[in-house]
Amino acid sequence: MSEAVRPTWSPKEDEYGPVLARLKEEVAACMQCGTCTASCPNGFAMDITPRTMWRMIQFGMVDAIFDSHTYWMCSSCYTCTLRCPRGLKLTSAMASLKRLAMLTREGRREGAFYRAFMDNVESHGRVQEMGMMSGYFLKRMDNPALPLRYLPLGLRLLGKGKVHLPGGGQGRILGPMFAKAREMEAMP
Amino acid sequence: MSYAYYPGCSLTESAVEFDVSARAVMAHLGLELAEIPDWTCCGASAAEPVSKLLNYALPARNLAIAEKEMGGADVVAPCSACYLNLLKVNREVTHDRHLLARVNEVLLASGLTYSGSVKVRHILDVFLNDVGAKIIAQRVNRPLGGLRVAPYYGCQILRPYPVFDDPKRPTSMNRIIEGLGAEVYPWEHGDKCCGASLMMGHPEVALQSVTDILKAARQADVIVTVCPLCQMNLEAYQAEARKLGARPVPILYLTQLMGLAFGLDDEALLLEKNLTVSARARRRLAEGRPSGPDPGMEGEKTEETRKETPSKEERHV
Ligand code: SF4
Ligand code: SF4
What is the DSSP track for B182-205? Predict the structure, then answer.
């Protein structure tokens, strides 16, 4: 599916506002104890610690947030969410940060896998792994070597009869729900 | 007992052996599964960064169908990511009137609504709390001969909602593994993240997690998982992890291990679908003998190394 027919998730200046406002709410009660940072298994790969990230959100430092790649290192392990003494839904906040960043060009590249996954769900109802991976590679034309990296695994899975050839799934059974969600989330 | 079964997308493709073995093991334990008609993807961890609303509405659609058509049966999911997404609807949406109304507005586009009456269960929860480790042990026909099994829970079955285990020190698989005649391999990595979908965008980061887990399982005969994503990450990247110092180890789904001990036949286990279980390892597993994938390592598993492991009492604290 081409990018041109997907207007809803496309970057727009006035979209930063609502997403950021929501993020501020999500982390408003943070008391900067650092438990989240200490818990994170991917902290070693982050340029800004989770704790500092929440402070940057509270201060509305949008440019610094866009410059960081911290949230792309979140693997949704939920350790920080489990341990935060304030009971904040931090994994969810990391997802909001990804959503915020996906309003930028660089963010759309980083978020290509999530977008390819959701495109595939929209088109087939159930993920078709091979189609989803091709969709992902198409969104990552900036890295032509990427398919090669996953080719051996793809062939192993194919050899084991563990992926379908294109054409399975439930069709566009979820189309109406996707359209409705798009319409509702486009509204502030 | 009868359940509304939600296999999830992976179990129709790359995790087909989890689906087949889960169904066979449930049948062996006398539990009935009816697949949720026309079920669709739960959104995994990809929905939330794209749409907060679909992150709830996608799993809710399946619960709405179960609620409407399956007479209040508990929904059981073998995949931890599906399980958490379904569970989140009950924990985060149904008690929030405003959010529930929004989610139902999306569902209405599919002609459905959800009120929150369906219970969501992980298959491990069903094994432990509806069947029980004792009954499972009674159904064993071929005890596993002291196979050293490292229980790997991963993330989303334990966190953020602890339902049937202690997320800081999970032990729920221990009783099942021991009931199968296997030994629980003592380790601290059962609740560590495998890197999940980071393996797609930043494989070098996820590979570090996989390597740490495999290194910690150095002396185990097998690792068992309860999630297709954990299974994929731990299986598919062992060659790379080996370059970073990890030793290859066979990875099985818990249901495959149970099926082995129950004496179910090959078509119920599909061990040949696993990426880390060689034909030789399959034969040894079927004979109930430890499977050390690399012959060099087997000689080292002497009585001494076995004695180094803590006693059962210590393990259960
Ligand atoms: S654990 Fe919670 S309160 Fe502590 S720094 Fe992190 S977000 Fe803030
Ligand atoms: S959920 Fe994300 S940010 Fe939180 S500890 Fe896990 S990887 Fe780190």
Answer: -EEPP-S-TTS---TTHHHH-HHH
